[in-house]
């Protein structure tokens, strides 16, 4: 495990199709089974984060065709739904699907096990992938597919953990069997090979889990749902960036950003 935990190699990125299929079958309903199946009780808490680090950079543009990779119920689009004409969602779970988002009926498709996205080149004005890629083995290929289907001048928004999330060869409470973060240096290497301009690389979620354990005693709403906290977190993430290690082994290394948010523009 050393090359993977030391962020030298991205685990799963060189898997065979048989290994990818096994991973896919394990992950297909795993997130839904963690407690997201019930649309009546499920709440989406990332609007403030997505807006600050992502949608605010889109400057009020209207989007004809939008794709959400792993977007489940599609709640991530609530705050910009009136700026979207057509919405497509690639989602493996049969349980995480909405009939309507705002006034739009989304078009759902299941992902290909290989990671190939069955849409033409340059078909979308906006593509999002929030917390999905770390559930996928062959990350670099899927990123290349997201960029392929984006129009020149279009945007790709990606948010993912950049820490190991523990040793994924062992069961972890509250996590699916295979999910692991994507090391920041590997993320940067992947994007450097693609025809994209990085509009924003926003680091986030510094000691958020720790603060949430305190906050939950006072409020049912997660601390990261509040804009003021997201602004504070942005500041903390800049201060403690140098502590970031993919697989932390010391307490001080845990006081560091846990995720990255990319706003990319295809060139």
Describe the model:
The chain has 267 residues and is of the alpha/beta class. It has a single domain (2-266), classed as Rossmann fold (3-Layer(aba) Sandwich), CATH 3.40.50.150. Helix content is 26%, strand content 20%. It has eight helices and seven strands. The chain has a seven-stranded mixed beta sheet. It is globular. The chain starts with a helix and ends with a strand. The model has no long low-confidence stretch (mean pLDDT 95).
Tell me what portion of residues adopts beta-strand conformation: 15-25%
Mean model confidence by pLDDT: 95
Shape: globular
Q: How many domains would you count in the coordinates?
A: 1
């Amino acid at each position: 495990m050393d090359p993977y935990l030391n962020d030298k190699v991205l685990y799963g990125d060189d898997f065979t199709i048989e290994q990818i299929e096994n991973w896919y079958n394990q992950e297909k309903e795993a997130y839904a089974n963690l407690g997201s199946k019930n649309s009546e009780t499920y709440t989406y808490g990332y609007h403030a984060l997505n807006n600050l680090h992502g949608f605010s950079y889109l400057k009020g543009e209207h989007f004809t065709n939008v794709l959400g990779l792993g977007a489940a119920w599609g709640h991530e689009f609530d705050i910009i739904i009136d700026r979207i004409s057509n919405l497509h969602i690639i989602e493996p779970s049969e349980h995480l699907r909405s009939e309507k988002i705002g006034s739009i009926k989304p078009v759902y498709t299941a992902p290909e096990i290989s990671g190939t996205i069955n849409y033409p080149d340059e078909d979308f004005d906006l593509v999002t992938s929030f917390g999905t890629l770390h559930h996928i083995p062959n990350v670099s290929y899927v990123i290349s597919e997201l960029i392929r289907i984006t129009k020149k001048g279009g945007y790709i928004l990606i948010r993912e953990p950049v820490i190991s999330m523990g040793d994924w060869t062992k069961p972890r409470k509250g996590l699916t069997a295979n999910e692991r973060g994507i090391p920041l240096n590997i993320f940067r290497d992947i994007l450097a090979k693609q025809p994209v301009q990085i509009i924003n690389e926003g680091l986030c979620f510094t000691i958020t889990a720790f603060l949430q354990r305190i906050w939950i005693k006072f409020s049912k709403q997660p601390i990261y749902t509040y804009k003021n906290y997201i602004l504070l977190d942005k500041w903390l993430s800049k201060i403690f960036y140098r502590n970031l290690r993919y697989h932390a082994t010391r307490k001080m290394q845990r006081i560091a950003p846990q995720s990255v948010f990319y706003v990319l523009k295809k060139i």
